[in-house]
């Protein structure tokens, strides 16, 4: 048994399909299938069960999985020891909700890449929870603390959200002086049955029953607000990227949420992953603080009484 066979085994276990494993590894699905068959023959054990949903681990595959992951971790540690203490190298995949992925991670990762030229960073923006056990990402940023699983969880930072609208919309519609006035305005928010985390259910905070324009993407919601389509709850750290969008009812409606960094438990033994996690955490804290500080503390939003 060699590492290349185990690497293919891990890819199929994490992707649940030969084609998905092939895409991950950069080889064709038929080659993946032949290599899996070769490994099963060498071990004299069936590693996968073929189902309509894909390739699931057979009992023998379940027993092999932790050993294959241990080999993967050991090889990663060997590479770390040879790369030296200062330089971060190799590939890292970061999963994040699209608000963080669009408005925070590009700046944070740009600085990381400049400091560590041999580091390759992949940002995966998906409006759902990432499955780290299947290595959809090496580490993930979430908006709530997970309650189960073999994971290392680290609180990154708090961030603020407020109700906002474009100044053109505010000029053309009735004034908003209290939450009661919101019922006469078009609301923008999440598609209710696609909210993947309770922390994203902002609409209840406004007292409005439903939103007329919805998306599962924070960025789409923000673009709708910029287009003057209505009002929505937005991240304060996103506002510097959105000229003309103004916070409203700040004294009456202000939300605070948190970002959490989630890693696979086995990665605690990896010096490289620990250093990457520390660098990412420091970068996100600094970027949230920088962007939020751009908004004047004594800002008087449009449409509020002075």
UniProtKB/TrEMBL annotation:
Domain HTH lysR-type: 1-58
Recorded coiled-coil stretches: none
Transcription regulation found in the keyword field: yes
Keyword Phosphoprotein: no
CDD domains: PBP2_LTTR_substrate (cd05466)
GO molecular function: DNA binding; DNA-binding transcription factor activity
PROSITE patterns: HTH_LYSR (PS50931)
InterPro entries: LTTR, LysR_HTH_N, LysR_subst-bd, WH-like_DNA-bd_sf, WH_DNA-bd_sf
Keywords, sorted A to Z: DNA-binding, Transcription, Transcription regulation
Similarity field: Belongs to the LysR transcriptional regulatory family.
Family matches, as PANTHER family: TRANSCRIPTIONAL REGULATOR, TRANSCRIPTIONAL REGULATORY PROTEIN
UniProt name for this protein: LysR family transcriptional regulator
Organism of derivation: Paracoccus limosus
